Amino acid sequence: MTEKTTSDLVLEQLKQGLALPGDLYTSPTLFAEEVSAIFGRQWLYAGHVSEIPHAGDYLTVTSGDESCIVARDADGEIHGLLNVCRHRGARLVDCGTGSTRRFVCPYHQWAYSHDGSLAGAPRMPDSFDKSRWPLKKVHTSVWQGLVFVNFSSEEEVESLPELMADAAELMNPFGVEDARIAHTEVYEVDANWKLVWENAQECYHCNANHPEFIRTFDVREMAQPTAGEAPLWYSEDRRSQSARFPLKPGAVSLTMSGRPASAKPMGEFADGREPYTAAAHLKPGFAFVFSPDYGITFVDTPVSPDRTHVKVQWLVHRDAVEGVDYAVDNLIRVWDQTNRQDWELCRSVQEGVKSHGFEPGPLSLDETSVAGFYYAYARMMSAAGL
Ligand code: FES
Ligand code: FE
């Protein structure tokens, strides 16, 4: 008899409409498998193009043992480079963003250009051929001003624009590529990365837990839309998902007052397009939500079975000026509060599922997207034979 895989087990739970067993959130073995089989093979969000506007600017993205430098060269092209020196393997740059003429290895000073080619290596024999030792490439794709990387070593990497095709139509009007980052928060969440996602998939918990969020977000309309339009689009495997976010009557932005937090509308909304709010997800780690005046990006990075980093960035129109067009406090209030409330809920679930008495319960009518996440997870795991 062959042993049951994780994906089989998840599909069985799904068939019964049940949540997942506790050890899926606590097992170090499974965690290591997920990091390599899922995060090591899927598109991961690296940052917004405005973070690396000039030649030599770079940012880094890490996932498990992998680290990538995303650098802009003198022609404006963006390169994904494995952050591992070709000599004896040192990291070239620390985490974070920066700007440099060349990537010089701190160990023995091998120097690389922005496209990864080896430009200099001291005291090598005459026979040494620099052209044979460029930094290894990491796949990159820029979609609507958002830079993604993919650590997969396979030649065949899926097309990101194809994966995001449904979200494109919904997101185009926001002109995300013309935004810039107004604020960044990195949250440490004491919960498994899947619990963070499950929480983000449903608003079954919103009325009881998110007083700021529900000032403008219409939970009932989301659950039972009256607008007559499908509120949700998703890819067949449920990795990519996008939706309009219904706001309460009179509200035009996800803010405390429902009024814009930034005076400079984004994209087509500056030309008077009817306001709406939309969200899109790309599993395993990325989501964004945009109102006409500002948006946020979420990146969910697994750290250990019971710990997750969530980086949230607030974006505004690139011409919006702090203190004139927006105030950071007001801009971030709803999502910052909502996030903190969510992380507390995730932490409490992480505690609960550790109990020997935990038995996965049935999902509600408002958690169909949680089931969708389970399905996406099962598909990503089964693609790796797990
Ligand atoms: Fe980078 Fe030696 S490890 S130059
Ligand atoms: Fe929430």
Helix and strand topology:
Layout: H1 6-15, H2 28-39, E1 44-48, E2 57-63, E3 66-72, E4 78-82, E5 97-99, E6 103-104, E7 111-112, E8 118-120, E9 139-143, E10 146-150, H3 160-163, H4 165-171, E11 179-189, H5 193-201, H6 206-209, H7 219-223, E12 232-234, E13 240-245, E14 277-282, E15 286-290, E16 294-304, E17 307-317, H8 328-353, H9 368-383
Helix pairs in contact: 1-9, 5-8, 5-9
GO molecular function, one term: dioxygenase activity
Domain Rieske: 44-149
Pfam families: Rieske (PF00355), Ring_hydroxyl_A (PF00848)
Question: Would you write up a description of this structure?
Answer:
A seven-stranded antiparallel β-sheet has the order 11-17-16-15-14-13-12, with helices on both faces. The protein is globular, with a radius of gyration of 22 Å. It has helices at 6-15, 28-39, 160-163, 165-171, 193-201, 206-209, 219-223, 328-353, 368-383; strands at residues 44-48, 57-63, 66-72, 78-82, 97-99, 103-104, 111-112, 118-120, 139-143, 146-150, 179-189, 232-234, 240-245, 277-282, 286-290, 294-304, 307-317. It is built from nine helices and 17 strands. It folds into two domains: 44-150, Rieske [2Fe-2S] iron-sulphur domain (Rieske Iron-sulfur Protein), CATH 2.102.10; 164-383, Naphthalene 1,2-dioxygenase Alpha Subunit, Chain A, domain 1 (Alpha-Beta Complex). By secondary structure, the protein is of the alpha+beta class. The structure holds FE2/S2 (inorganic) cluster (FES) and fe (iii) ion (FE). Residues 85, 87-90, 105, 107-110 line the site of FE2/S2 (inorganic) cluster (FES).
